[in-house]
Design a protein that fits this description.
The structure holds 2 protein chains of 2 kinds. Chain A is an alpha+beta fold. In chain A, 43% of the residues lie in helices and 23% in strands. Chain A folds into 2 domains: 2-51; 59-176, no CATH class. In chain A, strands 1-2-3-4-5 form a 5-stranded antiparallel sheet. Chain B has one domain (25-206). Classes of the chains: A alpha+beta, B mainly alpha.
């Protein structure tokens, strides 16, 4: 009886199919356990990055990739991500706006610029300059704006400024509608 | 557990010990060198990778030897791959959810355990021909041999390359002098080749490795 099953021509196919079915159901089970854990952690990560700019925030909502920040039930501001092309890769920036669309603060989430030169865009002396600016001021000083570029890192500085200005214009248009 | 149960303890021990020294996967068989080179830049990564490989090797050895009599020779390789891939996916889901920093630093090498020749090699050469018990011994031994090799290489690389050893975010110790002027070369991939080569040569010299 057993030998007959084992020598059947269809047996290898059926055997493989059974193994695959067992494997898939096991993986579905495990991912249903781990995916809620992942979601909770991702939400916590987003919140802690937002808290860098809005230290006293209560909760946030996401609308069309724009974060709306609430504090004590009232709207405190907005935040969005901007991506710039730096000297040696993408620069990921989080920008916070207050309800008058002035910059509340920015934070560089990730960058691969040259250490000691372009990488200084993450320092407070650079990111702090943006505080309180409105859209028209977001440009390097030679271009009529209010941002001092980092010495020796004009490309990195410009990439941050351009990325923020372009995305900020888009976001303000969207919010005003 | 048939005839081999007689004197099983001794045989178990023999299969277990063989993987650690006589057929150490990295130093003797020179298998799985790609992940070895990539993840041995810190002791922390080496520990994570070792735990992963031991888990996958042990589980896949158990399942494959358990179903060896029912597995048709025609589809045995696809069956092995599916079994191994299942355990690797479980591992990467668990790492991603519960050990995110480790998951990120191991990167693609975690999923590449699927095609790690050590694991597929053990499935084909040992687990598909031996009892479950002996396959457990084999998996543990080879896995531990891999882990010992990884830890030795990463210990030397991290020590020389950064001047200290850091495990699970805690600084274990630091060498004054070396930590201010670390030999960053050892953290880079060529440094891994050098360390593996020197260790192999040392083992050969001291007679730990014997020509068969």
């Amino acid at each position: 009886m057993l030998k007959k099953i084992l020598s059947n021509k269809a047996y290898p196919v059926i055997f493989l199919a059974v193994i695959v079915i067992i494997s898939v159901s096991l993986l579905l089970l495990i991912s249903s356990i781990t995916s809620p854990v992942l979601e909770v952690r991702k939400a916590e990560e987003t919140k802690s990055t937002l808290e860098v700019i809005f230290p006293e925030m209560g909760s946030y909502e996401i609308e069309d990739e724009i974060y709306v920040i609430y504090r004590d039930g009232e709207k405190e501001g907005y935040a969005f991500r901007a991506t710039g092309n730096g000297y040696s890769g993408e620069i990921d920036i989080l920008v916070g706006l207050d309800t008058n669309f002035k910059i509340k603060g920015i934070s560089i989430l990730s960058q691969t610029e040259t250490p000691g030169l372009g990488a200084r865009i993450t320092e407070d002396s650079f990111t702090g300059q943006f505080k309180g600016m409105d859209l028209s001021e977001v440009a390097l000083k030679p271009e009529g704006g209010g941002v001092d570029a980092i010495t020796g890192a004009t490309i990195s500085s410009g990439a941050v400024v351009d990325a923020i200005r372009d995305k900020m214009a888009e976001v303000i248009d969207e919010l005003k509608e | 557990m048939d005839a081999s149960n007689k004197g099983g303890g001794k045989k178990f021990l023999k299969e277990f010990l063989k993987g650690i020294i006589i057929t150490n996967p990295v130093f003797i068989l020179a298998l799985g060198l790609c992940p070895t080179l990539a993840v041995t830049n810190t002791v922390n990564n080496a520990l994570g990778m070792s735990a992963g490989v031991i888990f996958v090797l042990l589980c896949s050895n158990i399942i494959i030897s358990g179903i060896r009599k029912a597995t048709p020779a025609l589809v045995r390789i696809p069956v092995f791959i599916v079994v191994i891939a299942t355990f690797v996916t479980i591992l990467s889901l668990v790492f991603e959810a519960y050990f995110p920093p480790l998951y990120e630093s191991l990167g693609i090498y975690l999923s590449l355990i699927v095609v790690n020749c050590i694991i597929l090699g053990r499935a084909e050469a040992f687990a598909s021909k031996n009892t479950v018990l002996l396959s457990i011994a084999d998996g543990l031994g080879i896995g531990l041999g891999f882990a010992i090799a990884l830890i030795m290489i990463s210990f030397l690389r991290e020590l020389l390359g950064t001047g200290g050893i850091e495990i699970f975010g805690r600084q274990l110790f630091e060498l004054p002098g070396l930590s201010s002027y670390p030999l960053a070369f050892f953290i880079s991939p060529p440094g891994a080749f050098l360390v593996i080569g020197i260790l192999m040569a040392l083992f050969k010299l001291t007679g730990v490795i014997k020509d068969e």
